[in-house]
């Protein structure tokens, strides 16, 4: 293992201490640079290309690499490696398993699955993305992966897999994945309160279908029926400039703000208890926050990591009251982590292309 890859694995392990040895070996062995030969977008908006100063150092960091944009909107990437590791561990893949992957991305995730001994079929709706992933896998010398340009919702009709993993944000689970997969699980980032917490989903296509939350995450969203709105949909995130002035209506609760993981636990609970919970950019603040967004999309109440509540808009007082109730309820429940929720899914969305979407939650 080179020093660069050793540092890379150490970074992943620092961000996820439970990294199993077989996953550490996969990350150390698969050349990530082979999957970003066209370069990637740096956080400052510039484009890093092979051979440019610091290129390999940037490739071998625990960070997402944006590989395709539409204007200013990212539409394909290599996900954050520590998040990939958590999802792959949740998949419980074993050598010899057949894995269906929805969203090929760069092909790097499929390569890691192959390194774990799986045979992989990866489906991507973007033909050019599928072509590049296929070429990268060949260049990297990865066997056992088939990349198909097609409709992710349909999966691979007529074929059978042991498990499925989804690498794009979805509103729910396609019944086709459940038909094609057994014993499972299907690991997927499913929309909730403006984010995409990763769920491990199990059940037959006809139901009942249940899930548990694995971790917080944010993914690029899919298109078509996989992003259908439903009865428990939350508002889309409010971008910069959408929310007007907000003022403090309840003081901070905690001397030390919640760390990012615990704040996401609160965020998840807020999404369970309010269908207006989402992600919002707030005026005058660098960090976006959990917000109960009003129907106009310009006001409501934000809950900050220190428990302070900010509110604005015509119905500020009503939303502020709801925010305080959520904080009280979360503390009364002893601050449950998102993994403590048992999730029931129901068939909803487009009648011609339904999805299994989260509908009920109970604390285990």
UniProtKB/TrEMBL annotation:
Cellular component terms per the entry's GO annotation: cytoplasm
Coiled-coil intervals, chain numbering: none
Keyword hit for Cytoplasm: yes
Gene3D superfamilies in alphabetical order: Vaccinia Virus protein VP39
Tree of life domain: Bacteria
EC number(s) from the headed UniProt entry: 2.1.1.77
GO biological process terms, semicolon-separated: methylation
GO MF entry, a single one: protein-L-isoaspartate (D-aspartate) O-methyltransferase activity
Keyword Manganese tagged: no
Localization, UniProt: Cytoplasm
Key words, A-Z: Cytoplasm, Methyltransferase, S-adenosyl-L-methionine, Transferase
PANTHER family attached to this UniProt entry: PROTEIN-L-ISOASPARTATE O-METHYLTRANSFERASE (PTHR11579), PROTEIN-L-ISOASPARTATE(D-ASPARTATE) O-METHYLTRANSFERASE (PTHR11579:SF0)
Membership in a protein family: Belongs to the methyltransferase superfamily. L-isoaspartyl/D-aspartyl protein methyltransferase family.
Protein name: Protein-L-isoaspartate O-methyltransferase
């Amino acid at each position: 293992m080179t020093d660069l890859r050793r540092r890379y694995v150490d970074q992943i392990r620092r961000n996820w201490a439970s990294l199993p040895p077989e996953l550490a070996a996969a990350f150390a062995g698969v050349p990530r640079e082979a999957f970003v030969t066209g370069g990637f977008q740096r956080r400052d908006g510039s484009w890093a290309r092979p051979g440019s100063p610091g290129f390999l150092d940037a490739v071998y960091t625990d960070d997402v690499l944006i590989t395709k944009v539409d204007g200013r909107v990212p539409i394909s990437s290599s996900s954050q490696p520590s998040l990939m590791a958590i999802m792959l561990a949740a998949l419980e893949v074993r050598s010899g398993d057949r894995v269906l992957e929805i969203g090929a991305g760069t092909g790097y995730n499929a390569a890691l699955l192959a390194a774990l001994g799986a045979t992989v079929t990866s489906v991507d709706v973007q033909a050019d993305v599928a072509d590049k992933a296929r070429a990268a896998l060949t260049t990297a010398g990865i066997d056992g992966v088939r990349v198909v340009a097609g409709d992710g919702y349909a999966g691979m009709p007529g074929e059978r897999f042991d498990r499925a993993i989804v690498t794009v944000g979805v509103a729910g689970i396609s019944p086709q994945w459940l038909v094609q997969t057994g014993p499972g699980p299907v690991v997927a980032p499913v929309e909730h309160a403006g984010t995409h917490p990763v769920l491990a989903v199990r059940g037959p296509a006809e139901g009942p279908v249940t899930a548990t939350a694995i971790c917080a995450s944010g993914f690029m969203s899919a298109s078509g029926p996989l992003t259908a709105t439903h009865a428990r949909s939350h508002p889309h995130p409010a971008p910069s400039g959408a929310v007007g002035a907000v003022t403090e209506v309840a003081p901070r609760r905690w001397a030390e703000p919640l760390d990012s993981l615990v704040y996401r636990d609160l965020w998840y609970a807020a999404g369970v208890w309010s269908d207006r919970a989402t992600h919002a950019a707030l005026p005058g603040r660098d960090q976006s926050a959990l917000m109960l967004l009003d129907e106009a999309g310009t006001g409501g109440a934000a809950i900050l990591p220190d428990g302070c509540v900010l509110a604005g808009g015509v119905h500020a007082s009503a939303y502020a009251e709801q925010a305080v109730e959520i904080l009280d309820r979360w503390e009364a429940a002893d601050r449950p982590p998102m993994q403590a929720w048992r999730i029931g899914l129901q068939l909803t969305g487009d009648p011609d292309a339904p999805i299994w979407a989260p509908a009920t939650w109970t604390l285990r």
